[in-house]
C-alpha cells in the first residue's frame, strides 16, 4: 500500500511559544508524525495547502532557508521509504524509526560491531568477549577475501559455508598445535545467528525470508563430561597436605563445591559469610542465571568452613581468601548490586574471578597427579561428580533438577545422559550372561534324551 507524506502544524505551542512543523506519514489511513527542525512563531506563517517548496509564507524572514530544510526532510523520507520498500519493510512505524535514528546501515559488519559495543556498554563483559571474538574472526575472514565490508545482501547460506571452512582452518589460541574445536565454531555461529535474528526482528534490516540460517545450520560435537567416582573423591580427601598451602586451599574449594551440589566456581569465589545462615544453610543467588539457591550444609561442608571462620570476621567478608574485600567492586554484595556496577568495575571483577579460576584449576591438576587420578581435573568436575554420584545413589531426575538448579527436568535429563548408564549396563549383562541351570532342569534335560527302556531301568535302580 502506498505511503504519503505531508507537513502539518503542531497546534500545541512549545515552551518558547513556537509551533513545530511535523512530517505526517500515512499508510492505510494510519498516521505517524515526526518533528522537523522547523518551528514558526505564528500559526499563520505555515501554509498547509502549499505546493512543493512554499510551506513557509514569505512574510517569515527565514522562509527560503526553512522551505529548503523542509524539502530536504521530505526527500529524506521518500528515500527512506524506497529503501525499505525494496526490502518489503516499508511501514509508517519503520520509516519513522529510520528517520529519527539516522542513516540506515546496509553493513552487517558495522551492525555487528555496534551491537557488540552495546553489550560492552551494558557491562556484560562475558558476552562482550564472545561477540568481540566473533567480530574479529569475521573481519579477518573478510580481509582474507580482500573485502572491507559485509552487507546484509551478501548474507547467504553459501557465505556461511565459506565462513565455516575458514574457521576450521584456524588454530586454537590457547593451544596453537590444535585447530579450533567444533564447539567453539558452534558458539561463533550461535552469535552470528542471534545477530541476524535481531537484525530481522528488532532492527528490520532484512526480510525474514532472507535469513540465511533458514537453509544453513552448524552443529558441534558431543563431549564427554569428565567426572570422578566416590573412590577418586576419597583419594583427594585422603591426601596429606600442609594446612594453608595453595594445594590445601584448592582441595577445600573443590570439595566444598562437591558437598554443596556443585556450586559453580564464579559463585564460590564470591561467597560471603552473610550467605551462611544461622540454621546451617547456604543461601546465595547464582551469577549465571540469577536463580536463588538454598541448600543445607552437610557436616563435611561445615568442617571446611570451620577452617576459614575467625571471630573478627564481618558478615560481608569473603569466605575464601580469593578476592580482596577492600576493592571497589567488593562494595557490591547482592547480585542486583553487581549488575549495576560501572562497566570498568564489572570488568575488573570478571578478570579477577577468571584469574582465580585459572589458578584453582592449575593446582587441581597437581592434586590429580598426587592422588594418581588419570583424569583432567578442573573445578567444574565437582558439579559433574556430584551429579553422577547422586544418580548412582538413586536420586531421581526431578530432585536432581532442583539440586543442580536447572530450569527444567529436560535439561537435567540431557545433563545426565552421559552419566547414567545403569539401564544399559543391565541390558548388556543380560544379553551375555550365562544362564545357570538348576539340578531339576538338568535332570529333565537328561530324561528328554532317554528312551522308555532307559527310563524304566533308571526307575528300577532308584527303587532298590
Automatic annotation (TrEMBL):
Residue span, Tyr recombinase domain: 223-429
GO molecular function, one term: DNA binding
Alphabetically ordered keywords of this record: DNA recombination, DNA-binding
GO biological process: DNA integration; DNA recombination
Gene3D superfamilies: 1.10.150.130, Intergrase catalytic core
Family: Belongs to the 'phage' integrase family.
Listed name of the protein: Phage integrase
Organism: Bacteroides faecalis
